Amino acid sequence: MMKEDYLWDKTGAADPEIERLEKALAVFRYRADEPPALPAKIIPFERNNPRRFFRFGFAFAACAALVIISLGALFQFSGGKAEVAKDSKETNPSPVVEEVADETPVTQPNDSITRKVETPKRSVERSFVKAKKSAPVIDRQNKLFARNVEIKKPAVRLTKEEKYAYDQLMLALSVTSSTFKKVKNKVEGVEDVTAARGKSGR
Amino acid sequence: MPESEMTGNLFLFTNTAATAPAEEKVKAEARLVERVCEGDEEAFNEIYKIFAPLVHGIVLARVPRDEASDIVQEVFLSAYKNLHTLRDKNALGAWLAMIARNRATEFYRQAKPTEELPEEIGGKDDSKTEAREILTAIRALPETYKETLILRLVEGMTGQEIAERCGLTPESVRVNLHRGMKILRRRLGIAE
Question: Which SS3 state, helix, strand or coil, does residue B2 take?
C-alpha cells in the first residue's frame, strides 16, 4: 500500500527501486527555457475599396433619380393645373391668354423649323420660349395636328417657387455629374486632368 | 491477486477532497486561455510554464530526446495560433496533449531516415547509459502506460497532476501507473 502511495504522489515510504529510476531518468527531465517567440500579429491594412465608391455612387444616383422623378411629377401636376386654368380662361378671354397666343411659335409654309418669337422678355416668358424651342418639327400637311399638339401642351409658366426648385434641381444634377466623374476617375485611376495640366504647365 | 481485483482496490485511493482544488485549477486555466485570446502574451507564458513538462513528457515518449525540445516549441506555437478554436477552455491540457501526440506522429512522417551514432562515441557514462536503457524500456511499453510513467518518473509529476493536466480521471491514471510499473519492473528484471 505504502509503495503504491509513493508511486501515486510521492508520499509514504519511498520505494528504492522507483527512487533509483527517478534519479536515473532525471537527466531527461524538461529544463524550463524561454517560451517560443510568438508570431507578430498582423493588423489588416484598411484599403480604399473601389466597391465602396460604387456603393456610395449608386446610392447617390438613386437619391438624385428620386428627386428628379418627384420634381417631374410635381411639374406634371402643376402643368395639368395650368392646362385646366388655361381651358377655363379660354372661355373667358383675358389679357394673359392673348399674350400666350402671341407667343405661340409660328410655323412658316417653307420653313419647317419653329421660329423664336421676339417679344419683350420677362423671366416667365423666357422659360416658356425655351420650352417651345424643343417642340417637334411640324410639317405643313400636319399643321392641324401640330396645332392640336401645341394647344394640348400647355405653356409652362413657372412660379417663383417652381423656378427656384428648377434651378436647385439643375444645380443638384450638375453637382451629381461632377461627383460621378470624380468617382469614376478615382476608380479607374485616371489622373485629374486639371492637375495633369498644372503639372505639364510647370 | 488478479489484476481486476487490484484495480478495484486502487479506486479506493481516490482522493475526493482533491476534486475541489482541481476544479479551481481548471477554472484558472480557462481564465488564462481567455486572457491569451484577448492578446495577453504574459498569460501564454504562464500556460507554457504549467504545461511544458506535460508536453515534453508526451513527446519524449515518442520521439528521440534531441528532437523533443524543438517539438515542444512547435506544439506551443501551434497552440498559440489555434487557441481560439479551443471550444472547451477547461480542457486545455488534454488539447495540448493531443497536439503533442499529433506532432510526434507527424515527426516520423516527415523525418528522413537517419542512423543514430553509437552511444560510446561521446565517451562512456554509466549513469547516462542506464538512463537510456530505462527510457528505451519505457518507450517499448503500451501507449497509455509509457506516457503516464514518463510523466511520473521523468517529469516528476504526481498522479493527481497527471490526471488534472491530461484531463483523465485519477483512477485511470492510478491504474496506468500501477500496471505500467509492473511491466517495467518485469522487463528491467527488478524484483517486485
Answer: coil
Our separate counts of H helices and E strands in chain A read 8, 0
Residue B124, φ and ψ in degrees, nearest 5 = -90, 125
Write the pLDDT tens digit of every residue in A53-79. 778 888 889 999 999 999 888 888 776
Range of the domain at B160: 124-192
What confidence tens digit (pLDDT) does each residue in A83-123 have?
555 555 555 544 444 444 444 444 444 444 444 445 554 55
pLDDT at residue B159 tops 90:
yes
Tell me how many domains chain B contains. Answer: 2
Q: How far is A1 from chain B (nearest CA, A)?
A: 9
Look up the pTM and report it.
0.53
Q: Is residue B1 part of a domain?
A: no
Query: What is the residue-averaged pLDDT of chain B?
Result: 83
Contact B134, A24 (CB under 8 A): yes
Q: Which chain B residues have a beta carbon less than 8 Å from that of A32? A: 49, 52
The answer to whether residues B97 and B150 belong to one domain is no
Give the model's confidence band at B118: pLDDT under 50 very low, under 70 low, under 90 confident, else very high: low
CA distance A45 to chain B (A): 19
Say whether B159 and A33 touch across the interface (CB within 8 A). no
Selected residues 131-190 of chain B with any CB under 8 Å from a CB in chain A: 131, 134-135, 150, 152-156, 158-160, 174, 177-178, 181, 184-185, 190
Q: Is A21 on the interface with B (CB under 8 A)?
A: yes
**Looking at CA atoms only, how far is residue B14 from chain A in angstroms?**
10
Q: Is A171 an 8 Å CB contact of chain B?
A: no
Q: CB–CB of A5/A12 below 8 Å?
A: yes
pLDDT at B17: 47
B10 in a structural domain = no
From B54, B82, B115, give the residue that closes a domain: B115
ipTM at complex level: 0.77
**Residues B147, B179: Cα–Cα separation, whole Å:** 12
Residue A147 φ then ψ, to 5°: -60, -45
Contact check, Cβ <8 Å, B153/A18: yes
